[in-house]
Protein 1
Amino acid sequence: MTLNKFNLPDVGEGLTEAEIVSWKVKPGDAVAINDVICEIETAKSIVELPSPFAGTVSELLVEEGVTVDVGTAIISVSDEVSGDPTPADVRAPEPPAQPLYGKLPVDAAEEPTAAGSGSSPANAPLVGSGPKADAVKRRPRKNAPAASVTVNAPEVEPVQPRTPAEVTGSETAAVDNRPTLGGTITGLVNRVLAKPPVRKIARDLGIDLADVVATGSRGEVTREDLVSYQAQRDAELDKADGFWGKAGKPQDQRIERIPVKGVRKATAKAMVESAFAAPHVSIFVDVDASRTMEFVKRLKASRDFEGIRVSPLLILAKAVIWAAARNPSVNASWVDNGDGSAEIQVKHFMNLGIAAATPRGLMVPNIKNAQDLSLKELALALNNLATTARAGKTQPAEMQGGTLTVTNIGALGIDTGTPIINPGEVAIVAFGTIKQKPWVLDGEVIPRWITTLGGSFDHRVVDGDLSARFMADVAAILEEPALLLD
């Protein structure tokens, strides 16, 4: 028997550490090559790790929630397969599957692997679904006589007052003698007694009648019982800790400590480096985006854009691409060579970054070669980027190589701001909310759709004149989207 240890790999360029979010296997489980064994959280996203070995899980070497360095052993897999061998297992040995993190052939993801096989062919998908569980077999159900089941028992409410003897005699006997199916539907039979108005009040207050002490003459829950129960519940809630905690507790016991790791750790490091390495200069411009709003409305009604989410951000993204082509130095990087010299690298392609607020923190995935996309293709790319980011499925490669970033702070109702440049870039544009404001047009004050653009630039690369021309070009497109057709 050979024991193979799997070391945490670098799933992205320059990854140094990752947190084990969850294990998908446990000791004793059989795994095939490319079966998903765990989820890890890198500095940028959550990634599924496939197994590079086939065999039986021997030991999980790292617990969930622990952050480890790249190269640390996280799991050991023995080459013995648990269980009795099947005919599929007893055959001539096949060539070993291609290494997980090596290069795959072009058609590697086109032919699925048969579910449940003990090994994967060389062209197996990088992340396999693993063996499927056998279908659940249910025992045949024995049908009970129709008369023995009571369905949707009617609500019980008192109609006429009766004597205690009648209550304890006839009614109790009626309740106890209702037919049941081996005692399994006693919950339906022994329902809490309450009038319909009382039941409605309980539903409105979110009260389970079974929790209320009944004081009615026939054991039913009354309106007064609900009032008493609600008062008691409110008193308990008043005693419970709220956001500020109990006033009597010492302050050091009212501090929530959140470890800085994953996306938050990476974002903090990048923002500090950018803010103190690149001398920021920011400028702002108010824009009449009324024609952009009209253009977006026409796109939404267009058959070509049916089923595609269209917003003013689409026009801004196209405007930024167009304006960068007219002012190339905003689509660049400042690179220190390490020997005291430096160079400016102007990118003749646009990997447009879109800052996205997600449950895991700020992410900036980018649309590769955005300059080559039509308006419809750009809209689809923006939709896919937003959906993937919110679901936490953005991959590290999608957040690498950005050349210029847009942050849509207007989605949160903010007019403008001074954004920090994404590391490795020299410009970022903040898109404020679009709202109707009084605007002077041809000497008249009329309501127009107005937004404010804010731009931050690395002053080592972008001078004041260049940043102003770039922002003016972006504003020109928002004021007249027809310029994109030139």
Protein 2
Amino acid sequence: MTAPWITYRPELKVLDCTVRDGGLINDHLFDDALVKAVYDTCVEAGIDYMEIGYKASKKLFAPAKHGAWKFCDEDDLRRIVGDNPSSLKLSAMADAEKTDYHEDILPKKDSVLDVIRVATYVHQLPVAVDMIKDAADKGYEVTCNIMAISIVQDAEIDQALEVLREAPCSTVCVVDSFGSLYGEQIARLVERYKKALEGTGKEIGIHAHNNQQLAFANTIEAIVHGANRIDATAMGMGRGAGNCPMELLIGFLRNPAYRVRPIYQLLQDQMIGLREKHEWGALIPYNITGQLNQHPRSAIGILESEEKQDYVGFYDRLVADL
């Protein structure tokens, strides 16, 4: 019997998506001081990647209603990181059908970004593959997140992975968008992805949501089964119930290249105050949508209403719609 949780794999890399996923709680209206603090923390803590925001279409998302990190224009990026003289790789996410990628994603030689993460629902995969090819041709490291995998049929997963075998992406990420999956399901998905992508050199990633307070546990399960690209956020900040907390992940990993103390400093200096303004975490409405394998938008809606503590009414309405 082996105990993989007491050693470390040097090929395992950590991505911080605090600003990108966390920005969904406040339309990415962060001040520069917070974004710079997250960047500095990632550098000091030895994190491998920082996802600083989205490459979203300004035709679909009004710049007047969203912060700079919804769009990641080059001037805004360089205002925070300069030429990024560190070893930290910078990433932006591009959602299929929500980005003007031909124009807004510059050639790598003209950008401080290193990685483009293409996020797609399974039915959008043809568009996503075009985006992956475009970003790769421009010189970026490219990865792919298949979102809402908990509602995708096995045959569709297999077909999507068959397509992605041939696409120029270095990682394919298991994404528990609804926070509905349990450890056994995560393990099966990671093994399924590994088998489908065997021989390609592609890595498997994990992006977990915390609706049932399982994001950290499910992340560990994915790591044990061979996932080598791991997402987390400071204090678990993210849309709805949030994500795997970075402070727990780094505390769990045994790689001496990572340092947890700077992350606690970030929580103390920045995240506590932010959480007083914006609520996230495994609140009861998110528990309910997670258990029912539903998108958290309905939970977000009720938490913004006067009925936010009417748990029974919320549950009954969701069950009636099943």
Protein 3
Amino acid sequence: MTPLSSLAKTIRSKNAGTDKITFDIIFTDRATYERVKTSGALTRETVAALYRIDGDRITDFVNFDPAFAIKFTILRERPSGSPGDGDIFGAQQYAPLLSIQIAEPA
């Protein structure tokens, strides 16, 4: 098993408007991207479980083959910058993704 942080070139989160946070996981080569994509470790369902949210809060989940990227967007619990919002820019939300374990290729 290899942590996602050792396989991805970029793992980030950021605002996607007032009510959404978007996440990007970008790889440097097709083989690594395909390894992660086909592992089943990063799906709409696994992301919902990881973030302990209802799957309906994930508005988009895309495997973007041309850029070797996996992208998803989550609806915020409250608007960005409103009382109780702990991350106005959404830039600190990617941390749980770093330690996802990806199985070795068969």
Protein 4
Amino acid sequence: MSAIKYIPEPFRIKAVEPLKMLTRAEREEKIKEAHYNLFNLRAEDVYIDLLTDSGTAAMSQAQWAGVMTGDESYAGAKSYFRLMDACKDIFGFGYVQPTHQGRAAEKVLMPLVLKKGQLAISNMFFDTTRAHVEMAGARTIDCVVEEAKDPAKRAPFKGNMDVELMEKTIKEHGAEKFGLVVMTITNNAAGGQPVSMKNLREVSQLCRKYGIPMCIDAARYAENAYFIKRDEEGYQNTSIKDIVREMFSYADLFTMSSKKDAVVNMGGLVGVKDAGSPLVLGLKANGISYEGFVTYGGLAGRDMEALAIGLYEGIDENYLRYRIGQAEYLAAKLDEAGIAYQSPVGGHGVFVDAAALFPKIPYTEFPAQVLSVELYKEAGIRTCEIGSYMLGNDPDTGKQLKSDFEFTRLALPRRVYTQAHLDIIADALVSIKERAGQMEHGYRVTWEPPILRHFQAHLEPIK
């Protein structure tokens, strides 16, 4: 009998959505029709959808009740002011503007702080942030700590910035070349790994020393705060809300996809600490041009109402204990089976080490995409590749880049799946592991767009 403990849900289920399971033959045909790109599948042909934790949460009864009270006025809606009150209370920023999602916040902000020829440093850029930096004409540099690059190494706060490397990089290029430092919390590209408060503080001090603005990519800020409370000395008796306030106190700017830790299906935020900053006028101008008026930012009033409620639900400690507990339960099942992943497990899912599972498949044939396809064939599970396929080609040379990781991300939607679903996922991975040694080849790209290729590209198996 397994000794793995499952954290019970701090809620009960009020509504259900039917699922269907296709036969294996049907799934093999569906993934072929999708050109072996999981994004091209119809959701109705997926049994367990772990493609992303973005916008896939189950909203609470309080949020659905809020939907019915949303003020749909074009300008100055009361739902907007309710959202702003929640943002000021939780984040302590002087100016916050809604957007329809996180990459919209990046589109509004990045051209204001970066220009052609500049550089931006991060503990690790995720795909859309990297793309918006490059679209602004700048280039990215990742300075994640070395421990993160060894998935088997169990260490706390593997999402941290390597502060010594960051300062060395700034001195090497010259501080005037850098337009921005981005701290991604939790560090999605490194496996959902948390960032410590100490590291945020040290990065902030370096930014001030060299006059570079610091921006938090805050999609999973609440999960990061939970890790700080649980694992960082001195924070065990601090509330999640107070931890969040301190985290944001070290930044000048933030962007947020609210579709993650704010537990809503649509929404984003962009913030400036100093309400008197000239950046505010730029944000308003870009917001009006790209997103609609500044008091709705591409969101319906009902979305802002649900977001105002979700910001508080997302920092509830009982919910966060269950949320992180789900990932830890699935990770423990993989430990039993000897399947490698980015360890210890991060906040929003399990990042399986596909390079370790398929050692014969080179990065140019995308081992993590191989595992993603096999999981769909095996059990109708849709996941996402976080590796060389997602990283894409060098924007200057066009050559395939080699990622530090070849992860298949099992992103867990919030308040959606049960223990039985997690057991099915673990069993499917065990079945794939049993035949993994026979797999020597992966996929080649047959068509790709010029940017963010993994969303649309076509692939074919290499025979």
